[in-house]
Batch of 4 targets.
Target 1
Amino acid sequence: MTRTPTFEELFRDCRRTAVHLEMRDAYMKSDPSFIDWKAGKAVDPAERWGDWLSLVTEAVSRGVEVRRARVVSTPVSEYIRFEYDVTDGLNIAAGEAVRWLARRDATSLALPGNDFWLFDSSLVLVNHFDGEGESTAMESTEDPEVAKLCESAFEAVWKRATPHAEFELT
């Protein structure tokens, strides 16, 4: 069995594109940042996720296009409100382009069963979660058919999705 590279290794080895498709309405509800946000405490992305900001900023500075698309139910869940609130200071500030697609507008799209990152159109990092949104595993594959499916799904969502600055929570 081959070792799955770490997320940081995959991101640092990426040369052209890193795209992420998120399709859940809640993730890691045990995350202290989410818990603090729910309690009304200020969440400073630079303080909470400095490593992420550095990783993405470094990739973008070397020419990697980083894009994230989120398929969400509407009205949105409390967790998605949290994600939306931190997106400017976290994802956009790092250089990511972020778009949102209401799940009802994704009905005719063929989407894979799991969230994923696709690096340079060839390496897929599949993210697995339990029913409560807690991360359970990651696995990578360079299977060309899986990469093609993920790239096609991401681009279809991206084409229909609304840029972050224009997306209205409902």
Target 2
Amino acid sequence: MNDLEVRQLRYFVAVAEELHFGRAAARLRMAQPPLSRTIRDLERQLGVTLFERTTRQVKLTAAGDILLRDARTALEAVTAAAHRVRQAGSTSPRLRIALKADVDGGLLPQILDTYVADDAALPPQLVLGGFGQQPQTLRDGLADVALVLQPFEGRGLDSEPLLTEPVLIALAATDPLAARPRLCLADLEGRTLPGGAPASHGRPAEPRSGAVPPASNLSEIFSLVETGSVVFFAPASVAQRYTRPDIAYRPVSDVPDSTLAVAWPQDVRSPAVAAFVRAACTAAQRAQEERLLHSATT
């Protein structure tokens, strides 16, 4: 059997995700007949049926399910390799740090101060993205290290927890629930999060690659919260940065604490990445000691 080509895998993944040859062809910006021929050729090459086709629908077979999982991993690896090679061959290499703006537990300035003092440090470059996009940014080779909130899709990544803090619900100050000192998820029935998910289900899982909520900027989100359009789960450090008279923050008893972690691709042997991880752990330890000292003196 000949080795699979990247082009074949890209075509297959498009059909597998769309489950419609016409939509997949449009997504790939090509005509449908050559796409169909490529998939038939791929099935003959592998000696298996990847799709069950009827006049009404297209479904993945068991073999197709396995190939979809492995094809996504392979395509991510190819894309990441290209990005990392370009970065490594740059005349001015940098350490690319993926994060969501303000979702750093208040640690980023201290991390950077410690990191740049390390002999292995490269100039840092922030790669800003939406909520939950940082793990995929790492897998795509667009960043070298990331600050992420747990839980997250950890496939292909290593991580180290840094800081754990309570999660609060941000409500319009005029919301009747704002009169209560503490809430539970059941109290949030009928209210929605910025991405449209029911708030009573808790914090949503990491979004699918490419998925961006209608409002991914914190200022936009809190503007929506002020109007009562949505509610929003925020780590305590974010709530402290976004104090507004028209927003009330309340603890939710059955929502787990938020843990900030530093993550990086598995098998990376970059001294700069190692220096950043050390700096992040050091800054988190100092912050924890300061909190304990503050608690003991108040």
Target 3
Amino acid sequence: MRESRPRGRFARPVAGAMMASAALLLSGCGPADETPVLTWYTNPDDGGQATLAQQCTEEAGGEYRIETSVLPTDAASQREQLTRRLAAGDNSMDIMSLDPPFIPELAEPGFLAPVPDDVVEATTQDTLDGALAGATWKENVVAIPFWANTQLLWYRKSVAEEAGLNMDEPVTWDQLIEVAREQDKELGVQGARAESMTVWLNALIESGGGQIVENPEAPAEEVETGLDSEAAQHAAEIISVIGQEGLGGPGLATQQENESLLLFQGDSGSFMVNWPFVWPATNASVEEGALPEDLPEDIGWTQYPRMNEDEEPAPPLGGINLGVGAHSQHPDLAWDAIQCIVTPEHQAEYFVTNGNPPSSASAFDDPAVEEQFPMAPAIRESLDLAVPRPQTPYYNEVSTAIQQRFAPPGSVNPESTPAGTGQFITQVLRGESLL
């Protein structure tokens, strides 16, 4: 059963309205509301999408009403629910909040309604490069970027100063590892057997000039991986060293984004790769008295670490795109609603209130954005460098295989793990092995 109205602190009282509506219908004093209802399947947030649904409903002037239905918390469960509903021809899939890795899998079998050219023109003129890449399949925009996400390199200023690192200049993973060794500090990375491992590996390989999947548009039996490559071996070496030398902390094997943040906030913290949520989360903990008052003053940020000193990094790309189901009863209204949702003004508001960065370049110009997130310029720059995870209809198989073979990090062998994982992926896609 899906939830048809927002919950939590953004929810509005509805009991009285429902009783009044029922009384009206029973008394025969007026017609039923025939305003078309658009269901927006949202990923969990702090109520921001429900607020935007309400705002765009009001701006529609009676043309439509948007109701939200919250998807499960974890990405795998979101993907499963969306895929099952779309495959069954569910006509309530009017608007969907989609992770970039979902896009090819849903677009390839025709589960997504085509985006009208005028909608693409109206909504993507100032979209940042990384965000637009995550909404594209086979050179076509198949969903509209809403908010984008990327990882920065967060650092303790005191640690960088003691190491003599100039954080205004690019730094490499090898430098971070060396500092952690010398100062007996720990690196905030995500080593759990989870999607965060695929995020990390993909960023390392892409930053080194390689790719996990070399021909992402190919049919399953023809997919070729780039895991038997120098870039993949270098990436595996970084993961292996951090795992085997204990540089990622004692909980690395189960560590995802929240756990690595706690590590970074502690006495052994030094450097961390993570999403922008860490800034408001840290400040909230300081306000609650759970962390020292002066901790935020010791936190800096810069671009994702480089694999090679003379090559720009390829930070992870996350975020949400908005798509319309192929069987939606109201596709035209859904595209109108999406145009309302993704205006730069709404994206800026969503960033400030929910901590999720805009996909629109101009949204970063809102004064409230930089006041709330002083690292906003670094986020914007990172989003132009960001690279999606493999854009393939077989992403689930690729990511699951990586999680199985690259976790825990201490078990990774740079000589055999990458090539063995690539071989395993091709065997799975050809039906010769099971995940």
Target 4
Amino acid sequence: MKFVLKWIVNGAIMVASLMYYADASLWYAIVTATVITIIAYFLGDQLILRMTNNLVATVSDAILAYVLLWLAADSFNWPLSAGELLVIAIVLGIAEWFIHRYVLQGDLKVQRA
């Protein structure tokens, strides 16, 4: 369920942003959002968040999103500027902060039971 929430939230942000800023097709935007979400879930949520804290995991997810979006923009010849990539990464980082809080809150309830 946590992955599905992350996929929906990140997907909505990335798909809308890529279609707006890069004039990306819906299919390429969905595929890009899905790939980035999968990588961020395993690296950010399952590894970094569990080893550190919300702030470190959020910053690492935002940096990861910036780098992966930059690579996708380069691969698909999307005209994304560094500023546009930064805006998308910051919005994703804000969303990730709340997703991580939800994930951590659920983990605490499981540990207490």
